[in-house]
Design brief:
Layout: H1 7-24, H2 34-38, H3 51-67, H4 72-90, H5 97-104, H6 120-132, E1 141-147, E2 150-156, E3 164-166, H7 174-193, H8 199-206, H9 228-232, H10 261-267, H11 272-293
Antiparallel strand pairs: 1-2, 2-3
Helix pairs in contact: 1-3, 3-6, 3-7
């Protein structure tokens, strides 16, 4: 349990990493959502997982591999160790699997300070609290339960989502499954709590093809980062994106009620002429290609 940093240190490290990613991609450090950075690329984000959440899930799966091990010696060793810890911490004798699940789920104890000392199972209690009980926790619910006389975990990504139960049968894909639940929770929080900044991500969920914003494929230039991520987060400098309620929201060109990014690109009549010419030239270029290719 002492081989990895404390969760408080991981939180500081994660904040530095997220800040660095924003700076590299020319995203404003303040006012921009972390969900955009952490969401997978296929969901419209940058695909940079939070180091703190990744470390917690990795440690959790590592300990569960010992508790659910197919090697009888390893399995008995860790389960007996867990029972000894729970007996000391709770003061009970002959503890049951339900008692073990309650302890690992960060259940309240008689003494606030651990009597057995800080163990790997103390870290599991911290992880249970970090995944679902803190203000910045990604999951709606995470807890250990008893399933057919064995330990299992229950996960609920969102408030309206389904409760999933993972047992030793899911061990090989457990880390992948938990990361999927975390991504689902982050996506739901982004869309429900930040509807304006997640408009592009909402479109991508309905039309995945719109996630490819480079016409010929490939990577975008570094100069594009100055505008593209701000545009995808509704952070470009236009009247509608200002936080001051007293400032005008009308279009500076045509006088429309709201000068949004979408209005400037698609609706504002001052932009029509350029786009009509662009579409006309694109058609001519395509006809020219077909003629030359025979």
């Amino acid at each position: 349990a002492n081989s990895i940093p404390k969760l408080t240190e991981l939180r500081v490290f994660a904040n530095l990493v997220m800040r660095g990613v924003k700076v590299i991609h020319r995203i404003p450090v303040r006012g921009s959502p972390l969900e955009y950075v952490q969401l997978p690329v296929s969901k419209g984000g940058l695909g940079v997982s939070c180091p703190r959440i990744t470390a917690m899930i990795s440690f959790l799966v590592t300990i569960l591999k010992k508790l659910w091990s197919t090697d009888e010696y390893i399995r008995n060793l860790y389960n007996e160790y867990l029972k000894s810890v729970v007996e000391v911490e709770t003061g009970k004798k002959n503890v049951t699997v339900a008692d073990l699940a309650y302890y690992l789920s960060d259940g309240k104890l008689a003494n606030k300070k651990p009597l057995f000392g800080y163990t790997c199972f103390s870290r599991i209690r911290d992880i249970s609290r970090g995944l679902s009980m803190n203000q910045d926790s990604p999951l709606n619910c995470f807890r250990f339960v008893e399933d057919n006389g064995k330990l299992a975990i229950e996960v609920k990504a969102t408030e309206s989502g389904k409760v999933k139960r993972y047992t030793d049968l899911h061990l090989k894909k457990l880390q992948q499954l938990l990361k999927g639940d975390v991504n689902a929770a982050i996506l739901n929080r982004f869309i429900t709590e930040k509807p304006v900044k997640s408009e592009v991500v909402q479109v991508i969920q309905q039309h995945p093809g719109s996630n490819s914003f480079v016409r010929q494929g490939g990577k975008v230039s570094l100069a594009c980062h100055n505008i593209i991520h701000k545009a995808r987060l509704n952070l470009l400098n236009c009247n509608y994106n200002t936080y001051d309620s007293n400032s005008p929201k009308t279009c500076r060109r045509c006088g429309a009620e709201n000068e949004t990014q979408w209005h400037i690109l698609q609706v504002c009549p001052y932009s029509w002429g350029r786009w009509i010419t662009h579409r006309h030239d694109a058609v001519l270029y395509r006809v020219k290609e077909l003629i030359e290719s025979g």
